Amino acid sequence: MNVLTAKRLTKVYGSRHARAVTKALNGIDLEVNRGEFVSIMGPSGSGKTTLLNILAGIDRPTSGELRIHGQELAKMRASELALFRRRQLGFVFQDYNLLDSLTAAENVALPLALDGKRGAAVRKKVLEMLEYLGMGEYADRYPYELSGGQQQRIAVARAVVHQPALVLADEPTGNLDSASAKALLEVFAKLHREQESTILMVTHDPFAASYSKRVVFIKDGQVFSHLDAPSSRSQFFQEILQALAVLEGTSYDMAPTRM
Ligand SMILES: Nc1ncnc2c1ncn2[C@@H]1O[C@H](COP(=O)(O)OP(=O)(O)OP(=O)(O)O)[C@@H](O)[C@H]1O
């Protein structure tokens, strides 16, 4: 079953009266099934952020259809959309976006607290999630007492604790060193494998994308190609590099770094 169906999405920036209009999205079709782990890749300016903002309900498309978890986002009132985003979406950002004044556990509890859930049952659920993601010992630390990689794993715990229909990740490894990036990607892979979390990740990094099961390449606001993961991740990494070389018309270093 589809968690996300986007049809012919367009986004035009600038009004008809403006001197310049930009067609950031030019007819994107995208389907994501329940339990899929999908990456979106594309050159700078290809429309990735625009697409993610629309999928996240932050921005509205100029035209096209978008259904997430069976709901048409365009038909929702602002209050319904806010509730939908809180309950059905989880977000992971490049710069973690944890609240400095809250502990790791309190940050993870936020989506539950915003939904009116508090008390011992919430604390138990949060600690179980942190434990599950290998972060149990950091529950009572503040973000400034954690490394970037640890903060990002807390952010992932926060993104999934309320079991959203879809997790949207925007360059989640962008600020991490290679060891922390690998640890974070292992967390995503575990959530995908064991919890059947549905994850859509925008990334520039072929190594990060090789952890997902499908890559959608976009260029000039359109879907350029798709790649399904073969059984070996190192082979997928090579295939992604080759697809990027075609996409960007440049030759990537084919050496299997970090594998
Ligand atoms: N608010 C805006 N107003 C006008 N044009 C915009 C706006 N946001 C994005 N654009 C334009 O839309 C196009 C797509 O931008 P977008 O940020 O979605 O690309 P991207 O693939 O995320 O790029 P990057 O990888 O560099 O972040 C670009 O040409 C950009 O200049």
Automatic annotation (TrEMBL):
InterPro entries on file: AAA+_ATPase, ABC_transporter-like_ATP-bd, ABC_transporter-like_CS, MacB-like_ATP-bd, P-loop_NTPase
PROSITE patterns for the chain: ABC_TRANSPORTER_1 (PS00211), ABC_TRANSPORTER_2 (PS50893)
Family of the protein in this entry: Belongs to the ABC transporter superfamily.
Keyword Nucleotide-binding: yes
Leader peptide range in chain numbering: none
Protein name as catalogued: Putative ABC transport system ATP-binding protein
A GO CC annotation given for this chain: membrane protein complex
An MF annotation (GO) of this entry: transmembrane transporter activity
Pfam families assigned: ABC_tran
Ranges for domain ABC transporter: 4-245
Key words of the record: ATP-binding, Nucleotide-binding, Transport
SMART domains xref list: AAA
Tree of life domain: Bacteria
The organism of origin for this protein: Alicyclobacillus macrosporangiidus
